[in-house]
Amino acid sequence: MKWVHSFTGVLGLSDSPRLRKIVVGVIGGTVVLVGIVLVVLPGPASIVIPIGLVILATEFAWARSVLSRGKMVVEKARSRKWREKIFGRRDS
After folding, report:
1. Is residue 92 part of a domain?
2. Contacts of 5 (CB under 8 A, 6+ apart)
């Protein structure tokens, strides 16, 4: 988060928190919307949407919550516990 504060300081947004929230909201929202469009169109939507959420999470608590829930879902998918619940345990 240190880079965010230095970046907003360079732009002069550190003095105006309301303006900073608006700028971060517009940029992050635009990136998320582009990611949603990329779900339909060919493109890396699974990369662009989390990047937009990371941008939004620098200012908004709801975006941090969405990111933490998404992280839990990815960790469950990697541990394959969901497969055991659906298909049962198979020893290979």
Report:
1. no
2. 14
SS3 content of the chain, % helix, strand, coil (to 5): 80, 0, 20
Q: How far apart are CA 81 and CA 69, in angstroms?
A: 16
Which of the four pLDDT bands, split at 50, 70 and 90, describes residue 91? Answer: low
Give the pair of three-digit tokens for residue 57: 């999470």
85 or 34, which is more confident? 34
Is pLDDT of 83 > 70? no
Domain residues for 78? Answer: 2-87
Question: Collapsing DSSP states into helix, strand and coil, what is residue 79?
Answer: helix
Based on the structure, what is the number of domains in the chain? 1
